[in-house]
Each structure stands twice: as C-alpha cells, then as structure tokens.
Automatic annotation (TrEMBL):
<keyword id="KW-0414">Isoprene biosynthesis</keyword>
<keyword id="KW-0808">Transferase</keyword>
<dbReference type="InterPro" id="IPR002060">
    <property type="entry name" value="Squ/phyt_synthse"/>
</dbReference>
<dbReference type="InterPro" id="IPR008949">
    <property type="entry name" value="Isoprenoid_synthase_dom_sf"/>
</dbReference>
<comment type="similarity">
    <text>Belongs to the phytoene/squalene synthase family.</text>
</comment>
<dbReference type="InterPro" id="IPR033904">
    <property type="entry name" value="Trans_IPPS_HH"/>
</dbReference>
<dbReference type="InterPro" id="IPR019845">
    <property type="entry name" value="Squalene/phytoene_synthase_CS"/>
</dbReference>
<keyword id="KW-0125">Carotenoid biosynthesis</keyword>
<protein>
    <recommendedName>
        <fullName>15-cis-phytoene synthase</fullName>
        <ecNumber>2.5.1.32</ecNumber>
    </recommendedName>
</protein>
<keyword id="KW-0934">Plastid</keyword>
<dbReference type="GO" id="GO:0051996">
    <property type="term" value="F:squalene synthase [NAD(P)H] activity"/>
</dbReference>
<dbReference type="GO" id="GO:0004311">
    <property type="term" value="F:geranylgeranyl diphosphate synthase activity"/>
</dbReference>
<dbReference type="GO" id="GO:0010287">
    <property type="term" value="C:plastoglobule"/>
</dbReference>
<dbReference type="GO" id="GO:0046905">
    <property type="term" value="F:15-cis-phytoene synthase activity"/>
</dbReference>
<dbReference type="GO" id="GO:0016117">
    <property type="term" value="P:carotenoid biosynthetic process"/>
</dbReference>
<keyword id="KW-0150">Chloroplast</keyword>
<dbReference type="Pfam" id="PF00494">
    <property type="entry name" value="SQS_PSY"/>
</dbReference>
Length: 410
C-alpha cells in the first residue's frame, strides 16, 4: 500500500489552490487491467493514404528519414513522435510504467476525505477553466472522471506557468523545478493536494511520466520560440502541448476488451485528437496570440499563400487569408478524422465523453468559417444550444461497434 506525503504550497493557480499543511494520502495499489493480446489492426485511414498539403503519409508508411535542403538526413517530427507512441503502447501492453524513480517509504496517513477533497477541488478547477472537458468528464465513471480531473489540473497548471498571470516571471529554471515536482509526485511525494490527486491517479492507472515531461518541454518551447518555420516544427509543438494529453488519457479511458485494434493505433488516434485540438486552438486564437507576439502558423505556408506576419498583425480578412485558412482548417479536420477511428476502440464508458469533446472542439472550426475566417478580432466559440445538441450525437456514435470490428480486420 503506497502512502504519499503532502508538502509545501505550489505555483500555478491561486494560492487557495495549494495547501501548506503537511499530510499524506493513502493510495491504493496499482489496478491491473487484463485485455486480450492486441491483434493486427489497420485503421480505416491507413488502408489508403489521404495526402494533405505536401502529401503527409500516415505513420505506418512514411520514411523514417527525410533530407533537408543541405542534403543532410533528418528525422521528421512525426517519426520522432511516433516512436514515443510505440513506447507508450508497449508500456501499456506490458501494464508497466517506466521504472518508478527512487520511491521512498512514506510514514503518514492522510484522512480518506483528504483525497476526496483533493479530487473535488480538481473537479471545481476543471469546471471553472474548461466547461467542455468538464461536461465530457461528467459522462464518465466516477474513478475515470476523477483521474481525468487530476490530469486536467496538472496540465492546466503547467500551461498557466507560461500562459497565466505570472507568465512574465517564468524561467527555464522554474520549469526545471516543476519537472522535479512531477518526478516527486510520480514517486508518491506530491507537494500539495492537487499534485496528490494526480499521485493517487497514477497509482490506479498505468500512466507513464514521459508525456508529462514532454508537455513541460512544450512550455520551454513557448518561452523561447514565437515563430514556426514549417509544419514539421508546428507538429512537434502540437505534440508537446496537446498530443501528450491524448497519451496521458488513454490508460484512463481504457481500450474496449472486444477491440481488435492494436494499442499503437489507439495511441495514434489519441495523439491525433490532441494535434487536432491544438491546431483548432491555434486557428481560433490567431488574433489573440498575435497580440502577444506569437504566430504559430507555419511561415513557409504563409509565404506560399502570399501572406506575411504583417498581414496577421493588420488583421484584415482578404481572399488570400480565406484560402489559407481553408487549407489550415482542412488539415485540422483530417486529424479529427484520424482520431475518430480510435474513439470507437475505447472502453464503452469512455466513448461518449471523448466523442462529445471531439465534436465540440471540432465545431470551433465551423464557427471560424461562419465568422468568414475573421479569427483576428472574433473568437470562435460553440454556443450552449449547439453544445447540448452535440451530446445525443456523441451518445449515438458511442454505441457504434469499434472500427476494427466493423471492418472485420484481424
Ligand atoms: C473528456 C476529455 C477529452 C478530457 C481530456 C481533458 C484534459 C486532460 C485536457 C487537458 C487540457 C489542457 C489544459 C492541456 C494543457 C495545454 C493546453 C492548454 C492544451 C490545449 C487544450 C485546450 O485548452 P483551452 O481550450 O483551454 O485553450 P486555451 O488555453 O484557452 O488557449 C488543448 C487544445 C489541447 C487539449 C487536448 C486534448 C483535450 C486531447 C484529449 C485527447 C484524449 C482524451 C484522447 C482520447 C483518445 C482517443 C483514442 C481519441
Ligand atoms: Mn490558445
């Protein structure tokens, strides 16, 4: 039975969100989930390439090496990220996590309601900061809901370090300290009750530390990088800050026992959902990000469209801008399509919330179109009515047989 020590106050959200009292939490032992050996699965989208832009190949077929203008072999971001996906899938299949860092014996108990209070606080933060995700989690089982809340809060605090009120004071050293805290909570030594909820979550689900480390790397990137030369660079950033969320979430969402999908393919779909969400987020926030001096859109694609940073700072919707945005939206939708094939492979109890989250976030793209691509001064959002309408649609989709069964693929 692992016990964890709760220590000092913590950065991130408001001071009220961190507690300074000492305390420990009782953690249950790691739950083991059994599933049949993964069988061969070719996702529908992998049966035929759907090229976009410069003909993006699907992971299973792209060459692992590309060549840069200087003729040097370079490994694409997609290949680097796919290697992470393969590792995460292998860990989940073996139900192992990377060796736990030097776990130390803990010597205190925290009242059981301390853990409940910790998770409840996570739920309040999730509800306050992300109503769409919170709505999705309300469709989950209690244990999964709490686990996603704990993951959400850690992700939000991590994002707030570079996007929040104290962002101007954050330094790479502070991010290093945040990573050290992450290692501590992964070894059952959280600093506050919000970390303690995640500590408890990783003791219940086979979640690996790597995606969390990579999200912190994404925040380091935000500290030093305000332009992206091409989609390869942007893809890596989207992996860091959002694809990682997908990888964190799969062990909690669970894969349906009847699924014939390979674990790798489900992780690829989770990654795709994160990438799709982040691309959508970037397209939604063009004006807002530009006012903070950040342009995430690939510089080479802007130039090919006859556009420049100045056009973005000017914020005038021209036909060049409309055509550029149409291609960007098309690419984001292709990542949503890739994600859709994986949602059907999740455990039944997780499909509805993930479908709901996917449909709602994707609708932001529709709203950008409805705004005539004015994402400079208009923030696209999905109204309450459309949000509620998406729920029964998501529920209907959650009843579909897993794609791997429908295609009779083995
Ligand atoms: C029900 C459900 C999908 C829950 C996931 C909730 C969760 C853990 C979200 C974490 C989000 C977060 C705060 C990440 C930190 C970095 C960041 C801000 C990422 C951007 C999110 C949107 O934030 P927001 O809209 O608040 O943007 P602003 O900060 O206001 O600009 C991102 C766009 C990334 C979000 C990524 C996901 C939600 C990926 C979820 C993927 C899965 C759950 C995998 C599902 C499995 C399969 C097989 C498809
Ligand atoms: Mn944003």
């Amino acid at each position: 039975m692992a016990i964890i020590l709760v220590r000092a106050a913590s950065p991130g959200l408001s001071a009220a969100d961190s507690i300074s009292h000492q305390g420990t939490l009782q953690c249950s032992t790691l739950l083991k989930t059994k599933r049949p050996a993964a069988r061969r699965w070719m996702p529908c989208s992998l049966l035929g390439l759907h090229p976009w832009e410069a003909g993006r190949p699907s992971p299973a077929v792209y060459s692992s090496l590309a060549v840069n203008p200087a003729g040097e072999a370079v490994v694409s971001s997609e290949q680097k990220v796919y290697d992470v996906v393969l590792k995460q899938a292998a860990l989940l299949k073996r139900q192992l996590r990377t060796p736990v860092l030097d776990a130390r014996p803990q010597d205190m108990d925290m009242p059981r309601n301390g853990l409940k209070e910790a998770y409840d606080r996570c739920g309040e933060i999730c509800e306050e900061y992300a109503k769409t995700f919170y709505l999705g989690t309300m469709l989950m089982t209690e244990e999964r809901r709490r686990a996603i809340w704990a993951i959400y809060v850690w992700c939000r605090r991590t994002d707030e370090l570079v996007d929040g009120p104290n962002a101007n004071y954050i330094t790479p050293t502070a991010l290093d300290r945040w990573e050290k805290r992450l290692e501590d909570l992964f070894t059952g030594r959280p600093y506050d009750m919000l970390d303690a909820a995640l500590s408890d979550t990783i003791s219940r689900f086979p979640i690996d530390i790597q995606p969390f480390r990579d999200m912190i790397e994404g925040m380091r990137s935000d500290l030093r990088k305000t332009r992206y030369n091409n989609f390869d660079e942007l893809y890596m950033y989207c992996y860091y800050v959002a694809g990682t969320v997908g990888l964190m979430s799969v062990p909690v969402m669970g894969i349906a026992p009847e699924s014939k999908a390979t674990t790798e393919s489900v992780y690829s779909a989770a990654l795709a959902l994160g990438i799709a969400n982040q691309l959508t987020n970037i397209l939604r926030d063009v004006g807002e990000d530009a006012r903070r001096g950040r342009i995430y859109l690939p510089q080479d694609e802007l130039a090919q469209a006859g556009l420049s940073d100045e056009d973005i700072f000017k914020g005038v919707v021209t036909n060049r801008w409309r055509n550029f945005m149409k291609r960007q939206i098309k690419r984001a939708r292709m990542f949503f399509e890739e994600a859709e094939r994986g949602v059907t492979e999740l455990s039944q109890a997780s499909r509805w919330p993930v479908w709901a989250s996917l449909l709602l976030y994707r609708q932001i793209l529709d709203e950008i179109e409805a705004n005539d691509y004015n994402n400079f001064t208009k923030r696209a959002y999905v109204g309450k009515g459309k949000k509620l309408l998406a729920l029964p649609v998501a529920y209907g989709k959650s009843l579909l047989l897993p794609c791997s069964l429908r295609n009779g693929q083995t």
